[in-house]
Write a structure and sequence with these properties.
This protein is mainly alpha-helical. It is 74% helix and 1% strand.
């Protein structure tokens, strides 16, 4: 395994970690838009308040790792997706500000405004991340010299929007399962039904997305029948079956674990089949960005690998300790409260 492949794996781990961790609090935030009372919305906020900022560390780390290891990918994709990324950034900022500001004034209008900002600022990224992934998988107009030839409207194609709906449904289901582990009584029971319904929506959308991928990017099925590809596909199917089975059986933690494994398996299946391509060029496979033509120098990769091997365990320990400290059910009165 060369340095380029090691960095491919490390960035995949960071993306998977972010999708699992921030995926559920984006889902919880989106679900808060449908809370039945201000007190119930308080529970949504309190469920993610202690951990949401730690979850986003994985996004920052992943972006930094991409910049260090594959700067051509970072430069090309971020410049091409500029307007979409600004919209995503505004949504994430609105969500963060809402969490801090919502409890500063007890007035219903104030809390209602920031509550809506929290919900929309969670739902929009859940979909936009999928739209970005859909474009990367479908192929974007990259010419010679990694020159971007596309437009913002070109990113809003049917396939990318479909993938965005897949991730939106997946994160809402994931959030419902997490909220079920953190809540009690009527809210916990209602999240059971929400999780099952959004699981059905996810399965339908994912099936449509899989069929569409066969037409749009057939190369993503290149290694499905190989041992590793087959193993990951079976893991994906087993975890997908586990979500409704454990949910109906009342085993909330196991259902959430199955959902987490499902997210990781989906990412790994794509990564294994796409390797060594990072970004597909719609102008020809010879113009695609790979882990070799878009990589930093070997010395840079080695130096950053040493730094990553020191930094990533710190992030893991911080994450585990955070969840251990704030384990257990969330109750009214916890989290961000009005002063």
């Amino acid at each position: 395994m060369d340095l380029n492949t090691i960095w491919f794996v490390l960035i995949g781990v960071l993306i998977a970690g972010y999708a699992v961790l921030d995926g559920f609090d984006l889902g919880v935030g989106a679900l808060s838009l449908f809370a039945r009372s201000p007190e119930e919305r308080d529970l949504h906020v309190a469920a993610v308040a202690p951990v949401w900022d730690g979850n986003e560390v994985w996004l920052l780390t992943g972006g930094g790792a991409l910049f260090a290891a594959f700067p051509a990918v970072y430069a090309t994709v971020f410049s091409g997706f500029y307007l979409a990324l600004m919209l995503l950034l505004v949504a994430l900022i609105a969500r963060a500000v809402a969490l801090e500001f919502r409890g500063q004034v007890a007035a219903p209008g104030w809390k209602g405004f920031w509550g809506a900002a929290f919900g929309v600022g969670s739902l929009l990224p859940a979909i936009l991340f999928g739209v970005a992934v859909g474009n990367v998988l479908r192929g974007v107009p990259i010419a010679e010299g990694f020159a971007w030839q596309g437009s913002f409207l070109g990113l809003l194609n049917p396939y990318a929007i479909l993938v965005g709906l897949v991730t939106g449904a997946l994160f809402v289901m994931h959030g419902a399962l997490y909220l079920r582990t953190k809540s009690e009584g009527a809210l916990e029971e209602r999240m059971r039904g929400v999780a099952l319904r959004t699981f059905v929506a996810f399965v339908v959308l994912y099936a449509l997305g899989t069929v569409a991928t066969g037409f749009v990017s057939p190369f993503l099925f290149a290694r499905v029948t190989e041992p590793l590809g087959l193993l990951l596909t079976l893991l994906l199917l087993a975890s997908a079956v586990g979500v409704p089975v454990f949910t109906r059986a009342g085993k909330a933690r196991l259902a959430f674990t199955a959902s987490s494994v499902l997210i990781v398996a989906m990412i790994l299946v794509v990564a294994v089949n796409a390797y060594p391509v990072l970004v597909v060029s719609s102008l020809g496979p010879d113009k695609s960005l790979t882990i070799y033509n878009a990589a930093s120098s070997p010395r840079t990769l080695l130096t950053m690998l040493v730094i990553a091997l020191v930094g990533m365990p710190i992030v893991l320990v911080y994450t585990v300790l955070g969840y251990r400290v704030f384990r257990g059910k969330t109750r009214a009165g916890q989290g961000y409260q009005a002063v």
